[in-house]
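Researcher: I need the complex structure. Ligand is magnesium ion. Inputs:
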Amino acid sequence: MAEEHIILQNVHKEFQRKDHAPTIALDDVTLSIKKGEFVSLLGPSGCGKSTLLNIVAGLEKETSGSLLVNNKPIKGPGNDRIVVFQESGLFPWMSVLDNVMYGLLIKKVPKQEAKERALDWLQKVHLGKFAHALPHELSGGMKQRVAIARALVTDPEILLMDEPFAALDEQTRMVLHMELDKLWRETGKTIIFVTHNIREAVVLSDRIVLMKTRPGGIKNIFPVQAARPRTSSDSILVHLENRILTELEQEMEKVLKEELGSDYALKTDDLRVDPNNNMGSDI
Amino acid sequence: MLILITIWEAISKFDVFPAFMWPPLIIPNDPGGVTVLKTLVNGIIDGQLLEATGSSLIRLFIGFFIAVVIGFVLGFLIYKYKIVDDTLGFFVTSLQAIPNIVWMPLAILWFGLGVGSVIFIVILGAALSITITSSTAFKSVPPLLIRVASTMGSTGIHLFRTVIFKSTIPQQIAGLRLAWALAWRAVLAGELLGGSGGLGTLLDLGRSIQAMDLIFSIMIIIGVIGSFIDNFIFVRIERFVLRKWGILTT
Ligand SMILES: Nc1ncnc2c1ncn2[C@@H]1O[C@H](COP(=O)(O)OP(=O)(O)OP(=O)(O)O)[C@@H](O)[C@H]1O
Ligand SMILES: [Mg+2]
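Model: Output:
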């Protein structure tokens, strides 16, 4: 268990832009993730969470620094690291079942077995009845569940999830939290989980990486020591949630200030922001 | 439709224009005289019109098939390599601004009067159009789908076959439909100027012997074939695909 699975060392990522200074999406990120660890990335919009995830996935190349997976540098994407994206990205011309079988067939799993495993996973996300439907016949939340099934069925060593539950209703989200937690405990997968939802992060993770923006990077790392299975009302979790919220608010405040510049003071006056809010973030 | 036919017949009956310019469609002006319908039916029975239609269609198919292959390959190269896009892409777009028929004198000089030059302008017209539509289609593949496939381990030809190409099918079909219409026009224009048989050449013959009934019969055939292929082949495929892709929901 103590083995390092993913090691990021001084990872730096810039995006070139026309007629602009390059955007620094990630600045000097160093992070190592153990085998079987569940790590959440949390932070304001634009702080480089997706970029970090895509670098680990091999979909983007770091500008400098190094990335090791199983102590080896990676060469592009690979099916040991599957990504669940924010949008489902189902192939519209394939049935739900074919979508879920796609990754298995690439791994040369025999067709019959692939079908059984795919159906099994569709059942788990409560979509067994929709195996032969086309993606456009599903709702947004249903599509996202298919996308999750499609990723999990391939049984990757590393699962990279970019706000996978953001589009779901509370009910489905809870079911999938439990499902994911169970899967993670049973299979010992290494999971990097991007989210905006602090509660979600606190309930699911071993560690929470709070990110900052401009330039994007790591602001703080919070270990979560509560026993599993967890409920969000656990007092340790509630306490942690508040601590993270305070830090996140500071960061958000900073972003707002930069974005609105000198207008910022004016705006807050206009809106008559609750003074207690400001006090918390001035600390 | 019926009203148009009636008006037409009336004009021809009242001798507003001489019969060679305005022949009756169905009812002959004098017993046993010419009508468009009779010429059409006779032409089909004695094989003259059928033969001409057949040879036009064969040229069309050959030219169109070659154009599809060329168009797809060029379209793909333009999508894949920026350098090809900047050079060839620009060139193709400029060439497409030239109407097909303008190439005919050049084609005749290169390939002589005959089948060669007709097929040449069919290929040219359709291939340029397909190059543009297919490269546009490839460029518009959602990056998310490519990312999904690559993270699942799909690369190279597999990625192209299972995702990139599949995702462009609705646009490719629209592109083929457009190119088909262009090719159909090109084959007729080519035959009209370049001889070598086919409906276009027969039209030219009709003009030189002042046989309006023949010209009309050919125009009817051209219209019928054109709209038949469009409505019964392309529109159906397009509907099926759009429905499957969820773009069309009725
Ligand atoms: N392909 C790209 N080209 C240029 N800039 C990019 C690109 N992708 C991301 N960026 C920039 O990098 C920064 C980080 O983006 P990223 O998508 O990683 O943010 P994020 O933390 O995932 O945000 P969100 O929570 O809104 O999804 C942003 O400033 C964004 O503008
Ligand atoms: Mg993101």
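Model: Summary of the prediction. Residues 79 and 162 of chain B are 17 Å apart (CA to CA).
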